[in-house]
Amino acid sequence: MSDDTIRLVTLGRILRRRWRLLTLLALVGALAGHGVSLLVPPRYTTSVSVLLPGSWEERELLTQAEVATSSVVVDRVADALDWHGVDGIELRERITAEAAEGNIIRISGTADTPERAQRLSDLMAKEFVAFAARIVGGTTDPGAETRLEALRKAVEQAGRRITELADAADPGRTVESVQARTELEKLRTALRDAITKLDQTDPAAGKSGKATMVVMGPAARPTGEAPPTRAQLVAAGAVLFFLLTVVGHLAAARMSRRLRTEPEIAGALGTLLVGSVDVAGRRPVHRPEGRGPRAWFRRLLGVDVRWDIPAPRASGDESGRRIRYRRVCARLQDRLPVPGRLLVVVPDGDEIARRAAERLVAEAGDASGPGAPGGASLRLRLVGVTVAHPLLPDRDDESGVLVVVSPGSWTGAELAGVAEACADAGQEVLGLVVAGAVRARPGRRGTGPRRTAAPEPAVGEDVLGGVR
Known about the structure:
The protein is an alpha/beta fold.
């Protein structure tokens, strides 16, 4: 796993090298969002406001908002609407009520058409006002108020009857008549007190102002869909697929087992580092191009080029790069026990390493040609191997193997397989050369790289440097 910190430059590299793939997957996400919008029917929402006159506390307003969406009110609305397949339970999911400033309860209804949404909100407000009036009246039974009014009338009739009986009695001529009139007055007084207490304990009389709720006009017919709209679903699908693709690239980079440092590569091959060289020029390709529709599709999307390789750093002039190659050749001569030939092994698909190996072969041929100092003799033979099934030719007159790879291209298991293939062929890995890509600075006229007479071979062909 790579422990590199995810920085903005990493995200920029993904956008720059994977923009075709990101664009394609964003379009796929947009199509997926459009498909979801076809499965989800459009929804329209409108609201109506109910004013509660008088003085109300905040908790009382919250209670009224809960009453507006209670099952009793919703069931009454469902029965009045009589929509096919819509009962009180489903209707409750389409209704919301909230307490707003100024003693206002705002009731919102959602339906599949603007007309239905408007009718639902209006009917909800009407049923809420009617039900709240019954609650404030002390009962939810519509016949209780009628029975209470009948009781008041009966008490009034009893009071008038008592007055008639008192007038008909002997006006104080006997003790019995005085006692009867006194008892009748007591009974009439008791009835009056009962009626007074009944009026005082009636919530409708005490809070008549609160009981009169006002619907502030009909609900407006909605002109647009409620979120999420089709455009929002399409945009959300495109953004979601885009982000998932970026996160997938970052996760793959974090979980990558490709070796990036020179000590790790040398440890996987079980050898020592001879040196590092630079390769400048055209943009490197880190995967074989291949043929067929699959390879063409990969090239079209740009996924045949590694994105997690940092941009090549700027390098010095051509003379400085040539010095690096000559120093590597000199170290190889020092490591050879006797003058001989080395196999230069390059994994197939590593173009940076292949170009570095070809340059080493050319430099070795110049260093060991006629007139070379000390009569040095270094011969290099370039061989390409497939990391999936590495196979080297049997040992002939070679003195060992030189492996050339680029950092961040191969895993430890793949490089260990190359080392095992060398051992199986009876070849000893004498050293490692790590080749890195650089950007060549524009040189002055006449100071370009020196041309060599050796042709540029393909990976997998044998190339001899020097003299036999």
